[in-house]
Amino acid sequence: CMNLDHQTEKLRSLMKDFSTAMLITHGSENQLHARPMAVAEVADDCSLWFMTGDETTTAWDVSHHEEAHVIFQNDHGAYLSISGTATLVHDRSRVKELWKEPLRVWFPGGLDDPSLVLVVFRPKRAEYWDNTGFNKVSYLWEVARAYLSGETPRVKEGEQHGVVSLT
Predict the structure, then answer these.
(1) Could you read off the pLDDT of 82-95 as tens digits, one per residue?
(2) Cβ distance 164 to 6 under 8 Å?
(3) Three-state secondary structure call for residue 143
(4) CA–CA dist 113, 107 (Å, integer)
(5) pTM, rounded to two decimals
(6) Is the pLDDT of residue 150 over 90?
(7) Phi, psi (5° rounding) for residue 5?
(8) 3-state secondary structure of 71
């Protein structure tokens, strides 16, 4: 996302506010699987890094179908919907860079857990809805105005809502 347009920088900024995402993958028989994943890192290029076990459904899905989707939501403040590709990365030095002690719950062997593998999600297209900070005040004002006038709320494109192509 470095040196890119305002909406892409906004997307990256919103992504960094989340510690967990729903990763959606294609499973066997092309069924969709969704599961919460701790975000290990939001990289400068907007890639997302996660950790999983090499024998998990997540690892199987990613190794067989690279198309994936990520959803972020925090209460009623911010929403992100991102489509892209996911791949497994076997890189012990990268694992050490991204390791956080709370992950030991899922990987009792810690950094030395042989099943630990990384998932990198590379976004292609993202859509966001941002009602945080000043946008929250603006949005609440607009909702009240719309309610009293019998109209639908107006949303500020590029600030409260945006579509970002990352390819």
Answers:
(1) 999 999 999 999 99
(2) no
(3) helix
(4) 6
(5) 0.81
(6) no
(7) -65, 170
(8) strand
